[in-house]
Amino acid sequence: MSELRKLDVSRETFEKLEAFGELVRKWNPRINLVSKSSLDDLWTRHILDSVQVFNLAEGSGVWVDLGSGGGFPGIVVSILNQEERHFDVTLVESDQRKCAFLRTAIRELALEASVKNERIEEGKSLNADVLSARALADLTKLLGFAELHLKPEGTALFPKGQSWQREGEEARLSWMYGLESVPSQTNPEAAILKIKDIARV
Ligand SMILES: C[S@@+](CC[C@H](N)C(=O)[O-])C[C@H]1O[C@@H](n2cnc3c(N)ncnc32)[C@H](O)[C@@H]1O
């Protein structure tokens, strides 16, 4: 209940977030959606961590989550997006079994989102207004993915661990971009990188 207030979401949304957590627990032994060690703290480590990504998005349009894996943040975004529908959500994932899980979650939780079972670098541009990717690649590589899939005026939201500053320095060798780093509420060493105006050096 305290988390419900902290999250400021409807009871229905809260219950869907909980139901999604249960689905992850059920499927995890078979397809390893999240590390076993993080299952005990699934709510904070994965669900709230994804909620904060959603909360940083502005505007509306197409939201693309790259390398969605077990649905973080893509499925959480789809759940939160239901309250006031701003985005058409697409999840891109190359692993067929994870795509089966993502489609099951979408069906069982009655969400609106589509899943593309393809490699990020092989499909045509998805023209995202908002692009997210969590635990997928270093920032230099993510910016290459953004060049392909993000609209020129779009925003990328990349949650990053403690290496975010080093990754930023490396990425500056190849890319110019506008950066706002927002401290993570779930990990004091982590940040969510909010990136715009990406161009090659
Ligand atoms: C470490 S997992 C992270 C999953 C999820 N975003 C999370 O934070 O829990 C990375 C995921 O990206 C997928 N992936 C890696 N490279 C990819 C590519 N080139 N195209 C599509 N998916 C890819 C993997 O199959 C895997 O599910």
UniProtKB/TrEMBL annotation:
Molecular function terms from GO: methyltransferase activity
Subcellular location: Cytoplasm
Pfam families in the cross-refs: GidB
EC identifiers of the protein: 2.1.1.170
GO biological process, one term: methylation
Keyword annotations of the record: Cytoplasm, Methyltransferase, rRNA processing, S-adenosyl-L-methionine, Transferase
Protein name: Ribosomal RNA small subunit methyltransferase G
Annotated source species: Sulfitobacter faviae
Gene name of the encoded protein: rsmG
